[in-house]
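Support case: user asked for a sample of complex input and structure output to validate their parser. Sending the pair below.
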Amino acid sequence: MPMDADFLQMIDWSRAQFAMTAMYHWLFVPLTLGLGFLVAIMETIYYRTGDPFWRRTTRFWMRLFAVNFAIGVATGLILEFEFGTNWSNYSHFVGDIFGAPLAVEGIMAFFLEATFFAVMFFGWDRVSRRFHLASTWLVAIGASLSALWILVANAWMQYPVGMTFNPETARNEMTSFWEVLLSPVAINKFFHTVSSAYLLSAVFVIGVSAWFLLKGREERMARASIRIATIWGLVFALFTALTGDKSGAVIAEVQPMKLAAMEAHYEGGAKAPLVAFGVVKPEHLRQTPDDLFHFKVAIPGMLSAMSYRDVDAYVAGIDDLLYGNPQQGILSAAEKIERGKTAIETLAAFRAARKAGETMRADSLKALFNPDTEAGKSFLENYFAYFGYGYLSSPEQTVPNVPLLFYSFRIMVGWGMFLVLLMLIVWWQNRKGTLPRHRWLLWLMMLAVPITYVASQAGWVLAEVGRQPWVIQNLLPTSAAVSGIPSGSVVVTFFLFLLLFTGLLVAEVMILCKQIKIGPDKV
Amino acid sequence: MDTFVFLQHYWWFIISLLGALLVFLLFVQGGQGLLYTIGRTPSERDRIVDLLGRKWELTFTTLVTFGGAFFASFPLFYSTSFGGAFYVWMLILFVFVIQAVAYEYRRKPNNLFGEKTYEWFLMINGWAGALLLGVAVGTLFTGAHFTVDRNNIVQIGGDTVISRWTNPWYGLEALLDYRNVALGLAVLFLSRILALEYFLCGINDTTIRERSRRRIGCAAVPFLLFFLLFFVSLCLSKGWAVDPTSGTVTVEQYKYLHNMLQMPYVSIPLLVGVVAILWSIWIGWRNGSRRAIWWGGSGTVVAVLCLLLLAGWNNTCYYPSLSDIASSLTIYNSSSSEFTLRVMSYVSLLIPFVVAYIWYAWRAMSHPPRTDSHREEADTY
């Protein structure tokens, strides 16, 4: 049965709904992740010094933390269930692996956060100072633990490992929990994502403190908060850069098309340059295949160096991956599609044989999916590895949105680098005590808050749009992962939640602004 | 019993336990639904919101964990039910989202929608959250309209969806089955009973306590009526049985009654759980006892746990298909692989530890009962 128009719309609307929910979720989560630790550090100082100033400061930031926390929890709930509501085929195809981290997240992290959040927020005068401090740290740790498991799950979608395909159940099944947990993509994704979130929270604290300094209010609290936030921010800005660099190398290895697309790197080659800045020409304006940019500033050999730690290394371009490059041992997308179709047809033949009761034929076909046999190893490596390609109708579908990835990457990296500089300058001026005099810097610190949110979102756009057309890299395209519901159902709920989330976001921003205005002395 | 089968039963037990804890924790929803009934002045409402606000996250977290654990252990249910009964689940999610922010935003200045709106969010969640979850759980006994065909995954260029819903209402049709509605209403009124018992335990104000005590009787009557209606109809109705060897599904008259007779280790605790709930109602209504919540809470956990075990154990289809009997889901055909269940079982050993620290923190926060002098010092909702 061919895909009908409604089904195609369903795919697009499901993607839109998931993207919308994820982007709203990520507006709130990074602040929770980082501010939790900053609050814990401040409370630790209070615990050690007994100075009421630190209690007052801690409680001020804690109040902002609480406002942000609730809505992050709410949007997270929707995300988890949307895997089922919008992506039911996906849930079946990989639920055996993907569900486990989600369940572990619930058991290990969510309860920790939920339980000790109540103590942290309401327990000031009910539990001992030591127990309260421990609760604050446990909330911060719980939030990051929760991030670990969901990022492990996401990393698995980018780089599926630790599993085998079971033709009897027509799904992938886990064979090694540790491979899933400790895959290089998972490790790197976790550290890169949480460190960027810690950085964002530092920028938030600095921005809010700058407002107090501009208003000439709460100078001691503002300067003390800036001191902690700049050190915290500087450490994690550098760590984000380091893990980001490692991400480039990992992506080159496991998602070469994503790397090529985010660099608008069409023609592969050795000593590949990195375009530090440029404006990509739309496809219809290109005169020749090389005519890709209106203008660009490129660093020769840099892309090769970043991807393979070797300036002479060959970096595959989009054209290599699309049309193949036998010299470099790169298969064309068309060839992969053929191999994917063979894998799917083999599965179909197995299931037909099993249904017909042809046991011998079924068993021999099943052996092809067994990695412990020679025939199985070869089939899995040469055919099943491209299983998802079999659902694609043209090689061009394997190329994600190049301009979107190109700009997302530059916004993320460019702003991230700038933040290193900003943290250094602010820390130095604050240390000298001259910060309140530099009003332009205070304004820049405030302006940095929304821009950092944009850069953080750009990071996720890069990660998720860059994975297209796959839900699970090479194994399942988005089009084969959706639920069998009419597009109208998704459209209705898309707008319902868009309206709700937007309303709640506006409410949150208004409440936060008011709470900041009120300051540490609660009315 | 081989290891895989044991693990499938074990994980159905864990799912049932999480479901039972969730139903108990719905006392938060029950309390929200009673916000204007028990809290007649703004300060009384503040007191109730403040009390419930310290627990809402646990209910929320249990719901999330219940979903995650179901996904991990029975992924075919997750894909079939969530991807098919779309509207019901989306409605449930919607009412829980508005709850999550309501506690935090309600009394904050400049909150855009005003205090009353957030109180309505709490009320909507209090009524619809408990009712819809009960209706959704009811379909584990009464079935749903879906088909499952794993062969669809090989339809290149065609319709690859494995689980399909065959009813155009995408889950809302569950509201047309009186047994689902009866269970939904039973859960709703049970949540209100538990909330009232929780008020008796956690609030010192004599007016609120007296109002709560009297109200228990009003909630108990419909609860008993709807629960009995559901339970009796369950005992008298057919069920779907599976042959674990061949996987063949057949309709069996009085299946759930047979389950109760064949599994006394489930039916006796079920009875004990129900008696504990009834006892809690009695001591709460008659004496305003502070201990009523402990009887009611533990009775609820035991009773719901056993009810859910009846749905999945003893070779029963826990999600019968009303469209294609062979598509019905059992703990055998819808579970994760043995390896995954084993790994998850190791993780589940953490559950007692989790329960222990929740208990510890809960106790630390519960003593002494709230008074106005405490409210001045602490942050409140």
